[in-house]
Design a protein that fits this description.
single chain; 10 strands; three-stranded antiparallel β-sheet; alpha+beta; 8 helices; seven-stranded mixed β-sheet
């Protein structure tokens, strides 16, 4: 698996900011995976400085739209996190967990740890996760966002988007409207026979 070194706007030399829904369609057409929240986390964890710096610029320029999606229960705090949602090339992975309501601030407790472990597909401790995310911006305050129960009932399907906000914040959003909020994204090259056939133009 390899994340593109530039966001898709630079790769194809034209401005592109799209919803998660449109990005999924785009990358399926390109024969690629779409960057997920776990892909971002693993990039920070492995310490690829050049790629981290490039992603930091994306975070400054706008929302990084990922292929991670959250489907909230309309009546309870239960939800399903899906990574690589809708992809024809990347392996889809799902977690069913209880997701608290986060309005930026969060407590460093077991529930937060469980949520972030699922969000980034890792077994790391909460402390390790937060330190790893800090590699994108050591001076920035990490803020978590998820919809309240009323908003979960109105719009239960949300995408995961990350960005640098004002006041030195690093927003990790589990509340982004998947079909209307637009952002930047990146393709992911996956070592698979299906992707190779698509790139060579052998698939229909």
């Amino acid at each position: 698996m390899q994340i593109n070194k530039e966001h898709e706007s630079k790769v194809i030399k034209e401005p592109m900011r799209m919803t998660q829904e449109k990005w999924i369609e785009h990358f399926n057409g390109e024969g690629m995976g779409m960057i997920s929240a776990p892909n971002l986390y693993q990039t920070a964890k492995t310490g690829n400085k050049a790629l981290i710096e490039s992603l930091k610029q994306d975070l400054k320029d706008g929302v990084i739209m990922t292929s991670s999606q959250i489907r909230y229960n309309k009546k309870t705090l239960l939800a399903e996190i899906i990574h690589n949602v809708g992809s024809k090339f990347a392996k889809i992975k799902k977690y069913k967990i209880e997701i608290p309501v986060f309005n930026g601030d969060f407590e460093e407790n077991r529930k937060t740890e469980k949520y972030l472990r699922a969000q980034f597909d890792t077994k790391d401790s909460l402390d390790k996760i937060l330190k790893t995310l800090k590699k994108f911006g050591k001076e920035r305050e990490i803020r978590l966002w998820t919809p309240n129960q009323h908003d979960r009932k109105k719009r239960p399907v949300r995408s995961v988007g990350l960005c640098f906000n004002g006041f030195g914040r690093f927003d990790v959003g589990g509340d982004v409207w998947f079909d209307s909020v637009e952002g930047l994204s990146r393709g992911v090259i996956i070592d698979s026979a299906k992707q190779s056939k698509k790139i060579r133009g052998e698939s229909k």
